[in-house]
Amino acid sequence: MAEFANLTLETAGRHVWRVRPAADQLVALARAVKEEGGQLIALWGSDDRPLGAGYGLHAAFMTSLGMLWATVALAVEDPAHADLAAVFPQAGRMQRATHDLLGIRAEGAEDTRKWLRHGAWPANAFPLRKDYAAATVNEPDAYAFVRVEGDGPHEIPVGPIHAGTIEPGHFRFTIIGDRVLRLEERLGYTHKGTEKRFEGMDLATGARLAGRVSGDSHVAYAWAYCMAVEQAVGAEVPERAVWLRALFLEMERVANHLGDLGYLGNDVALAFGFNQFWKWKEDWLRLTARMFGHRYLFDSVVPGGIAVDLADDGYDLNRMTRRLDDEVAQLKRIYDEHATLQDRFANTGIVKPDMAARLGLTGLAGRASAQAWDARMQFPQPPYDRLAVNMATQRKGDVLARAEVRFAEVFESLRLIRDILKHLPGGAVRAELPAVAAVREGLGWVEGWRGEVVVAVRISADGRLDRVHPHDPSWQNWPLLEVGILGNIVPDFPLINKSFNLSYSGQDL
Amino acid sequence: MTTGILLQVLQTLLAILLAPLLMGWVNQCRAWLQGRSAPPITQPYRVIRKLFHKDAVIAHDASPLFRFAPYMIFACMALAAGIVPTIVNDLPFSPAADVIALVGIFALARVFLALAAMDIGTSFGTLGARREMLISFLAEPALLMVFFTASLISQSTELPVIVETLAHKQFVIYPSLAFAAVAFWMVSTAENARIPVDNPTTHLELTMIHEAMILEYSARHLALIEWAVALKLFVYSALGIALFLPWGIAQAGDLAALPLAVLALLGKLLAGGAGLAFLETISAKMRLFRAPEFLGTAFLLAVLGMLTHFILEV
Q1: Predicted structure pTM score
Q2: Would you call B201 and A267 a contact, using CB atoms and an 8 Å cutoff?
Q3: Residue B37 forms contact with A (CB below 8 Å)
Q4: How many folded domains does chain A comprise?
Q5: Segments forming the whole domain that contains residue A223
Q6: Which CATH number belongs to the domain containing residue A34 in this structure?
Q7: A5-52 residue pLDDT tens
Q8: From CA A344, how far away is CA B288, in angstroms rounded?
């Protein structure tokens, strides 16, 4: 990135770098990142007018250095930036959402349809602007789906209301017979105004809200938020708290992976697998509740440390991890040797490595398509720098590969939990945050079970939250589901969808 | 003759009333095998009762066909239950239809179900109807082949004669029936929308075959369809018993053998239901486009059974 030698990299936390390019440098910076094999992780905007500027466009890139947080200042009148989707296709939906929420245009973008707006606020009002005062409306305007013309194709609209109790999303299939020719997603049905809700909140309440962005990744979000806040105000977190946060994160990973492996069995009508995995998940959650007071560890991570300490030496947890090692290995053998299940999993929903790299597939699904990124390994935050995480990767990119990565990560997390319990330092678990009287910013970055969770925070001079952007890996991965289904048959879609298991709430915000 | 008619009515009513119990038993066995606590065996009755007490919601675009279809489907299954001998053989109703007509009765019910599914014009109804037609046009020939094998042994396509030959004549081992029995089991899973061809308990609308066709039904219509589904499973089980394990069935007019016949039937249904639950527990649902291979295999086995008959048994 020699041509950007004139840009100064400020350090903004461990493995996080801040850079402020001019508006016309952004695309070139993105290209340079792409050329060295990096990816665009997140893209969001901010209303900087109260700070005496215009608007801000923020992009987080994964590079060989770590996370590169680029901020571009935009004009007050008609804020616009050059289209990034031509370099990183995953930017497309993020740009559309940024426009819906802040009115920041991506100039030259191919797709300028709305994304998060479903007619609950007027098209010319932008909720994340500080002077937003529009009343809630109900004017659902049409959404222009891409139409497939011709004689054979047939369209099936699915959702947002489904037959099961799952989150809402609309899937528009174009099929020939039962073969899928094209799939188009329409999301945003669970838009709750989370980002707006953060504005003016105190830091502790913000942690509670951050953890609820996507409930299955509570610890990942709460930790990423706290990391951002602690970075912003310059707080020192006690060592024991950091280790216990990692313990919570791995426990969350085990719970989710066990649940997903059960669901994968259920989706091919192997109810036996479902019941076995969910029995173990339930035991795991009950143990979690007994130890830390909440099944999903809600509100256990707070700014400055953690809210619940480990009361004993974790003997029960240690024993449970060994038990699960055996049980999951046995269930894996059953899955491995079940001919019909393997037939359903293998070669279904393939995302090839080159496609995954081109479109920015990330996290667990990325690792199943040879995208070897795991923040715990390459850019470890404490205590992962002392834990030596083994990354699980696969090349095939099918449902089976994603199941295999989950199995490998369950075993690895169980090992990490034992490691953490063994080396857990003593001492305090919570520190007071230093008071600050100026505008501060920070970015937190945690490898959740689904992929990297990024939370960017700006604290205003009165010590309250001014802007928080939580980013879910589902943003990048949802478009890849549209790719993975191509050429498959309609009845295999639920299985493929479940193998990704992406968050609606996390990307709808 | 009066006794015959009485027995006929008794047997048909017994089938209609017992059918949900068989469904409840299968569900119970499935739950136990999966390590869950099971719903009561009477659960299907409760569901049907609940549905009869609800108000029906019908799509705006539904034609009278949509309302009429559930009655038709239920009537077809009740008729089939009257034809297949369960406790007494050679009832007055039996000559009304032979096995070929029986296949026709099942097909009639299916045609109405598929038409009703397409009638309301939702994409899932059409999707389910198309898949159902794909499955059934492959299943029906295989089913006919199974019947032909049995018919060749007894030289008749009449069910009472087939049953009589096996149950009350000199005991002979027929290897051809072994092939036919396996083929019959395969066809039954497809026809009754069971695993590995279809999954009756799924909530994933895109994977459904039978369930996709009845998504728009509610209340009494749905109750009739659910009951008909239970009845169909019962009739298929009774058919399997009649063709391959008819021992214990009472001869026409033999009232003394009746209690034993009822016990024998219950025993066989209990064993059959448990067997079905076991097979469903260890299998996963196959990819939709594997179903033709599966049913092709069933057809092949039925043909092998027929060849075996000519080679070994004639």
Answers
A1: 0.91
A2: no
A3: no
A4: 2
A5: 203-234+434-467
A6: 3.30.460.80
A7: 677 888 888 899 999 999 889 999 999 999 999 999 999 999 999 988
A8: 10
